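USER: Fancy drafting a protein?

ASSISTANT:
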Amino acid sequence: MRALVLCFCLLAASAAFAGGGPENVLVVQDDLCPESAEIARYYMEKRDVPRHHLMHVQIPGGPRPKKKKKDPKNPKAPEVEVDDDGWDAKPSFASYAEFETQLVLPVKRWIESHPEDHITIVVLTRGVPVCAPVKNAKAAEILRATTHQLAGMFCEKDEIRSGPEGNVGVGSPFYKVDESIDWKKPLKGEWPMLCVGYLDAFTVADIKKAIDLSIVSDGKRPDGTLYLGMSKVGDPRGMYDPSFPAVAEYAKKLSLKAEIVDHREDRILLEGRRDVATYAYGQANWDEAFPAKNSYQPGCLVDNLTSVALTWRAFVDGSSGGQTPMTHFLRAGATVVHGCVREPTTGAWDPGWIHIQRYLDGYNVIESFFMGHPWFPWMNLVAGDPLTQPFALRPTVKADVTGAKGAWKLKATAIATRPDAKIVSFELFIDGVKAGDLKDGEEFDPGAAFDPAVNQWRVVATDDSKFRTQGSASSAPLKKGPSRVTAKLDGYVKGSAALRLTADTGEPVVTWVADGAKEKVGTVKGLRVSVQFDDDTVPHLIELWVRNAKTEMPPIRVEVPAKKK
């Protein structure tokens, strides 16, 4: 059957009211870490991040130690050392130059070359080191969280890339900001910054569970309790405990429950709570069993004011995780956690726990933390889905498609649910690409090639509140098709790459992505794909996402070799 193809010219997004939704996310995958690809694919499919919002980096892992293995033919013989060609995490980028070359420049180039996609949040996945040296580092200990360092990639101020030695940071341009963050709208008029999250846990299964919980919690406003755990008297981790009554009162004004929990000496800091919606405390060397002694509601944020709570070891299964591994909470059912990649000092926290207040107000979790810490760049790391936003008041969006082949129409309406807010941006995305701006209640023509049995659409409305909260309505999932699809290059003539697909049953619906192509993304139904490149003298890569796969299926990658001049 002849393939049905739909490609859109990429339209400029409205820069003023981006908000932070799947269409504003760029996912970074480390191709040298096998599990990075699995995490990236799962997140993009579950969150419906546009498939062309995946960028590839190549960051080698750490040196893998020799392992000992018995000879299966002679089990009584002593073990011998063998090479292991697997992948191991490394604690940090080796230098600022390595960090810049392997991560900063590729991400920056991608965003600059895709202005129509309006990225406001970057999501790093397993394989990207959690630490990076500052530009002026002369010693290995002058490190900062990779997410913080990357957040300033568009800022020309060199102080963002440098850092003082010792345990004192510099002031953060994010600190106490109270509006949604967009690097195209510089903070305080001079700081073009974006938010960067980290998607990882002890295991791939742990982070998949956290992603699912984040999606379930979205805008649901948990009815559980904010628990504020007191530290031992005299412990510097408890220096901001006196703020807990004010934080609890703030939560209660939002009609949320709060409880201040006395310190326990047995290292079981919280036990038997079945309604944990948010938990903040300060303690080192707690019992690793205590996170599992409570139940956490979807969207639960857990924060620990202490040292080295999210070092690289906290993302290695089987490791102790370091001194205070917050990833134990992800395994126990929390949705997102915060900790530090190195020794932070208490000055890195806001005395009034502003990040907790911002989260309860309705910001997503990554904006809340960037807004709530006085120092930048520093050691703070947030692990989990950065789009987690359980307290959001999302606009109500309704949309429907009517018509017939070649003459489909889409009509949508949107209402802001936050008091005194109105809708300022109303956009239609088809297969992740902006197709146009909508008018409330009016029909929109998606084009003659549009087919609701093939193309997936999403309507996104953004309100004008300080949160730039998005609401959406989406098409139903496609009817399930093949469980196995393969693809190969069938010809390459005058820049036109022809791919032939095979499927075990039915016809695949495939979204292809190819940088360097005249159209960067397109959707195809059938067993033939054609991609036109501008320059056939350089090699290209085509990624194929099967949208109607019966079972989980990783993207299919087809290499297109360069033609000789």
In short: Residues 1-18 have pLDDT under 50 and may be disordered. The two ends are 35 Å apart (CA to CA). Residues 96-113 form the longest helix (18 residues). The CA atoms of residues 130 and 146 lie 5 Å apart.
